[in-house]
Specification:
The structure is a single chain. This protein is mostly helical. It has one domain. Helix content is 62%, strand content 0%.
Length: 68
């Protein structure tokens, strides 16, 4: 599964739009994101790990690595 799919699933679970996610993210972080910019990062797989971690934190999730 890609970061795009994972984040979309979390947004659906939390009933949050991409626009609302970027607004919440921008309140907590000095690096600002736009909904269009985030959408492009997700579609083209250019989202950095630290950004993904901050996005997950914004909606109350942790990224966990688990041995298979």
């Amino acid at each position: 599964m890609s970061a795009y799919e994972d984040i979309r699933i979390l947004l659906l679970k939390e009933c949050i739009t991409l626009k609302k996610l970027t607004q919440l993210y921008n309140l907590k972080n000095e690096h600002k994101l736009t909904p269009d910019g985030l959408s492009k990062k997700l579609r083209f797989n250019t989202l950095r790990y630290d950004e993904a971690k901050k996005l997950a934190d914004t909606i109350g999730y942790d990224i966990i690595f688990r041995k298979r």
